[in-house]
């Protein structure tokens, strides 16, 4: 009968639909597997372990400021022991309000939400005098943050200098606009007090800022150089820079050696065991030049040849720095027993010229108390170190501008604390500093720190549509000198873990780690300073919506010896919209940036669920590598990253794409620029680091979080159909073909250009009473289409329920007509602009 024939045809169609759905699931599984294989594991780049070369300038605007040595990052000075009967003020100590006398009357120093303070103290330090003389006051005035006040003071013998500075500022354009935030002290800063507390003057002990000025500067070596020439005795005092605590101190040498020591000319850089001194350095001070290798290597070679001390002559165009040492050199375990200092290029050149003329030159070391010229009080009344002013490679004319950036960073920290205390937000601790202090387990290299976190149940999690990650890396000892000295990438990863792993201790040192493919956050450590950030991690929210226990990993490079106190928290919130992320689909990773880069990124076919109300691409992209190709890519060159989307349909096992293409592009602008990262302090870049932090990088900065690039692609996708997504990385809007580096900008230990990228397609849907698990939301395309096209109106449902066999027959024919219409629609789509494409990965 007609009814039997109809039912047989319907059965045949349903069987074919089921077979198609099964094949679809197989194809989708294969696509995911192939995509996973294409993800390139981030190369460890073991050469980074010996990365002592300070970055060369990018060809566009940097070469004039870079040094040629491999010794460049200097930590802040060690705080020496003191004979005072009180403890030194520590960074982040709370400072009670106090009064100081200024030209405009009594100033009550009491930081708060709308006020922070930065102190600049003038002394007899010639380096500071030169810095202030070269500074542009106009640039400083334009950079002064609205809620930061600057207090200028001086020691007793430098009050006249302070008066001169004020007069120069008053004559500079822009002074009137900021004069209410500039304060000049009328009383001198008292010197360090070495007597008993009751004898010391009240100002010293009751004012933590003045204590920090006197105590944080430590002791600096002085050299008294003597020689006889043409029957006349000459004597000259020269300032020098000591080490950062990894060598015996000058004080120890003075206790053992009271007579002057002779200088001996090494005659070179002292960087290789085959590099022997031109004359004997036995029992003398070996004079070597700065450059090519680490300070550690120079001191080691000099000690092996019997030297009693080492003087490193500064390069012609560089500032003197404290002698630093770090990984991979065994700084404190190599048995080094002699001190070392750096002297200026001018003074060192004079000594070397005398030695070349066979003149006997001697030196007697001594020590002087140094002061800390820059001290801050943030909005929370905490005592703060300022860092290095100006940073390496920066123009001295911008010195005070960088000082103003410190105040800008205080405002950023205040705003960050306010975000952490926002109402209706759920804060979930991931890693806590208090537990790390108690256990002594710090965040360092190796496998990193893991944390098993218990999230609220699904009913609670479904109310959130936004996830942010807060992360801070603090120096273990509290001072800048206790922080790691290099800019390493740190990742927060979500890992796949079994029940046994999830049942282990809540946190600790990671040992064997499973698959950790989902990056929740990417950060870059500052040069010898702490940092704190908050970034958007909404792309990972769908993986956490079910609540329960999850395994997270915080890691930095395996070889890293840098240690931090890590604080990581999740901030779940609701933005008030009626959508939430339902699904996050991994797209493309990066890789080595060369002429084959784009061919390794094949198009991806993504099924768009019928529940989709909005779609976004979330992508974290950074460029790395320098010194190996002519364009200095990819850290210091500008690259473009292009995503294109087309709609697709599948007919008879072949995929057809629409000719209508939607292109979305982001450019990593600012890479290689003079002040690219300095302009991002308000976004969380740690200012005044002990390195070349201010130069722009490709998508990142030292001491920063890498925020995702988020673009709405809703108009480019259609629920129930496929989205065909392609990606390409470009240089000057064309495929990159690196040429070998030629010229002065090239270095011996550079790294190949590399793009590090994690990208996801985030699918949003209307908020529902209970969220399906992400796996369930990933229904096959055929099922989604069938569900979409088989929905019927309420009147049709009424006919179905009350018409008996006639209703059955009507519905049967309706199904047949629907299937025929779908088939004709697909064929027509091909004729009207869809082109056949190859199957995707």
How would you summarize what this structure contains?
The protein is α+β, with helices and mostly antiparallel strands and 841 residues long. It is built from 18 helices and 34 strands.
Task: Give an overview of the whole structure.
With about 850 residues, the chain is an alpha+beta fold. Helices cover about 25% and strands about 30% of the residues. The strands form seven sheets. Strands 6-7-11-10-9-8-12 form a seven-stranded mixed β-barrel. A hairpin with a 2-residue loop joins strand 27 (about 640-650) and strand 28 (about 655-660). Helix 1 crosses helix 18, helix 3 (about 135-145) runs parallel beside helix 11 (about 400-420) and helix 17 (about 795-800) crosses helix 18. The protein starts with a helix and ends with a strand. The model is unreliable at about 25-85, about 770-810 and about 830-835 (pLDDT under 50).
């Amino acid at each position: 009968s007609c009814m039997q024939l109809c039912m047989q045809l319907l059965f045949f169609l349903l069987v074919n639909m089921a077979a198609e759905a099964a094949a679809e699931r197989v194809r989708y599984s294969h696509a995911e597997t192939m995509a996973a294989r294409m993800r390139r594991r981030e190369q460890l780049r073991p050469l980074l372990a010996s990365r002592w070369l300070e970055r060369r300038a990018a060809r566009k605007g940097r070469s004039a400021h870079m040094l040629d040595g491999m010794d460049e990052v200097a930590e802040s000075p060690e705080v020496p022991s003191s004979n005072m009967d009180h403890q030194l003020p520590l960074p982040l100590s709370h400072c009670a309000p106090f009064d100081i006398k200024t030209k405009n009357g009594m100033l009550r120093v009491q930081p708060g939400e709308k006020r922070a303070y930065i102190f600049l103290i003038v002394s007899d330090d010639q380096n500071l005098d030169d810095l202030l003389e070269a500074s542009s006051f106009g640039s400083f005035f334009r950079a002064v943050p609205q809620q930061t006040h600057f207090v200028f003071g001086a020691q007793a013998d430098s009050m006249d200098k302070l008066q001169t500075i004020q007069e120069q500022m008053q004559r500079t354009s822009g002074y009137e606009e900021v004069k209410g935030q500039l304060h000049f002290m009328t009383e001198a800063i008292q010197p360090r007090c070495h007597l008993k507390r009751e004898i010391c003057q009240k100002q010293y002990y009751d004012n933590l800022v003045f204590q920090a000025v006197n105590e944080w500067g430590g002791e600096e070596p002085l050299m008294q150089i003597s020689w006889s020439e043409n029957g006349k005795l000459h004597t000259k005092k020269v300032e020098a820079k000591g080490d950062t605590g990894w060598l015996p101190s000058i004080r120890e040498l003075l206790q053992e050696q009271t007579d002057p020591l002779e200088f001996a000319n090494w005659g070179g850089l002292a960087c290789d065991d085959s590099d022997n001194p031109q004359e004997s350095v036995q029992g003398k001070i070996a004079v070597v030049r700065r450059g090519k290798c680490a300070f550690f290597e120079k001191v080691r070679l000099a000690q092996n040849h019997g030297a009693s001390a080492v003087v490193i002559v500064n390069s012609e165009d560089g500032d003197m720095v404290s002698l630093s040492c770090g990984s991979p050199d065994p700084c404190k375990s190599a048995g080094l027993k002699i001190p070392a200092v750096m002297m200026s290029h001018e003074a060192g050149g004079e000594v070397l010229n005398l030695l070349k003329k066979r003149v006997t030159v001697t030196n007697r070391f001594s020590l002087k108390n140094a002061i800390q010229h820059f001290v801050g009080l943030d909005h929370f009344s905490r005592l703060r170190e300022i860092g290095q002013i100006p940073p390496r490679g920066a123009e001295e004319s911008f010195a005070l501008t960088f000082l103003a950036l410190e105040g800008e960073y205080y405002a950023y920290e205040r705003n960050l604390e306010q975000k952490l205390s926002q109402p209706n937000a759920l804060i979930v601790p991931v890693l806590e500093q208090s537990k790390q202090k108690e256990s002594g387990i710090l965040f360092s290299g190796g496998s990193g720190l893991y944390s098993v976190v218990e999230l609220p149940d699904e009913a609670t999690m479904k109310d959130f549509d936004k996830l942010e990650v807060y992360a801070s890396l603090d120096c273990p000892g509290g001072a800048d000198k206790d922080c790691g000295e290099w800019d390493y990438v740190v990742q927060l990863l979500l890992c796949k873990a079994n029940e046994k792993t999830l049942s282990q201790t809540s946190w600790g040192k990671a040992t064997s780690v499973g698959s950790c493919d989902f990056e929740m956050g990417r950060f870059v450590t500052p040069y010898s300073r702490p940092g704190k950030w908050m970034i958007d991690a909404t792309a990972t929210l769908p993986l956490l919506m079910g609540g329960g226990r999850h395994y997270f990993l915080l890691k930095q490079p395996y070889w890293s010896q840098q240690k931090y106190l890590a604080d990581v928290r999740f901030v779940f919130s609701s933005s008030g919209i009626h959508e939430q992320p339902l699904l996050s689909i991994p797209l493309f990773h990066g890789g080595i940036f060369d002429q084959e880069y784009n061919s390794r990124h094949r198009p991806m076919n993504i099924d768009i669920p019928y529940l989709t109300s909005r779609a976004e691409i979330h992508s974290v992209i950074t460029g790395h590598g320098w010194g190996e190709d002519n364009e200095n890519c990819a850290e210091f060159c500008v690259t473009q990253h292009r995503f294109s989307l087309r709609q697709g349909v599948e007919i008879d096992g072949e995929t057809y794409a629409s000719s209508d293409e939607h292109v979305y592009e982001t450019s990593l602008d600012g890479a290689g620029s003079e002040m690219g990262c300095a302009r991002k302090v308000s976004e969380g870049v740690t200012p005044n680091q002990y390195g070349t932090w201010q130069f722009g990088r490709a998508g990142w900065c030292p001491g920063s979080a890498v925020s995702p690039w988020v673009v709405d692609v809703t108009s480019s996708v259609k629920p129930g159909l496929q989205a065909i997504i392609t990606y390409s990385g470009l240089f000057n809007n064309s495929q990159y073909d690196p040429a070998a580096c030629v010229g002065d900008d090239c270095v011996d230990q550079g790294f190949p250009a590399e793009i590090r990228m994690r990208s996801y397609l985030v699918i949003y849907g209307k908020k529902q009473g209970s969220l399906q698990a992400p796996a369930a939301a990933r229904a096959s395309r055929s099922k989604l289409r069938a569900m979409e096209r088989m929905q019927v109106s309420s009147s049709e449902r009424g006919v179905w329920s009350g018409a008996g066999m006639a209703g059955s027959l009507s519905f049967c024919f309706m199904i047949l007509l629907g299937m025929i219409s779908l088939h004709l629609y697909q064929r027509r789509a091909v004729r009207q602009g869809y082109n056949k494409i190859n199957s995707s990965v």
